[in-house]
Amino acid sequence: MHQLNKSSKLPLGTTLKDGEAHEKHHQDWSRRTFLKNLGLAGTGAMLLGKIPVTALANNPLSQALADTNSDRILVLIRLKGGNDGLNTIVPLFDYGTYTRLRPTLAIPRNEVISLDDGEGIPNTMEPLLRLWQDGQMKVAHNIGYADQNLSHFRSSDIWASASDADVFKTSGWLGRYINDTYPDFIENPPDHPPAIQIGGTGNLIFNNANMFNLSMVVSSPEELAEIAETGQLFNTNNVPECHYGDQMKFVRAVANTTFKYADVISDTYEKGKNNEEYAEDLGAQLALVARLIKGGLRTRMYMVSIDGFDTHANQLTDHPKLVSTLARAVRNFYDDLASADLDKKVLSMSISEFGRRIEQNGSNGTDHGAAAPMMLFGPGLEGNGFVGERPNFQDLDANGNLKFELDFRSIYSTVLESWLCIDSNVVDQVMGSSFPRVPALGLACLATSTSSRTSREKLQYKLINSSGEVKIQYQLPESGPVRIYI
User: What pTM was computed for the model?
Assistant: First the structure.
């Protein structure tokens, strides 16, 4: 311990200057403790164009994303509340049963756009028709998990943690294996955020095993214009000249330095331009994603969300508006990317915690159900189609709900491995187990683009034996991921 001078209350042998430094050390220590307890050291929300943005911290998946040569992008579209799959993908193959169970909620036949001889979409989703016709849309039937939990919160946690229904994990599938503490992330962050969530704070998907949200976030009420002009989230000059102002300036400065990605995000936002007119809500979020992609941001994963799918009542009014918003936003998004020839490297897919019951309730709505379809979009699908068996109204689970056929974690795993080109072992680690892949999705990591695949016959290569070392040299017609098997 320091021995204190009775008059100065400072360690013996120190000068006034030393004392000021000593006091500053304690002040800094108390500030760091205060910030840690307050949560400013790891949570919050950054606003871009009035939309909150979260940048994901470093973890094995993020590192794997950064290490791959692929520049492909995955966009998760969360339909929050439990989307009604039967009024999204209309079961024309058993339309009589569908209308009998939903006498007032069933989509009239003359308002259904046929996708094939057995399924269709409501005409409110007409903007998606061209994506379907161009081979840029697939639908995976009966997605879910065993022992479906019908609670929004629990089922959302299951989808976020990729756990079994009877396993309660406090970590998310993206945050589970995070092995760096916050100071390590600050000292050596990647140049671009590996993943970004837009439109709301993170849920369990970003938590580590200690229930700490490892999303890199800073809270700001400021507009994007100020971020772009100053490169900061908070103004550190416009503060009162008093002790309170000094503390406010310190907190704002920490927030500014905490969010390392403010500069690169604002820079790419300014470089990118939208060529489509988007609507608000989901459209605004996807507009921001498109603008960041077009501006050169090297983020590999995005998550956007749209709320309101818990349609216990007034579904006939509310649900058509929701799916119309979804359809227009997705169509605008891909048209926007196509204007810069970037649509080929972006895959999007919808996720929702569960579907709805097959029969309507007494409030002109539907209650919590089980299995539901997932929609995937993008030229990388290389063809439209349906994956899995059609819903079976005659073979229901114990609660009278549609049975799931494909585990959602199989879709996750397939997309991570076959689209983002993540090593199979890393994917299994992230998912917590090995789930069967779904080849019918038509995704292939070896494809250099959707317009041109390089077969082994076209790949120019040669072997060079030099001092016992074998070297493989190859030449590609265009950039893309390569796997070499020896």
Answer: 0.73
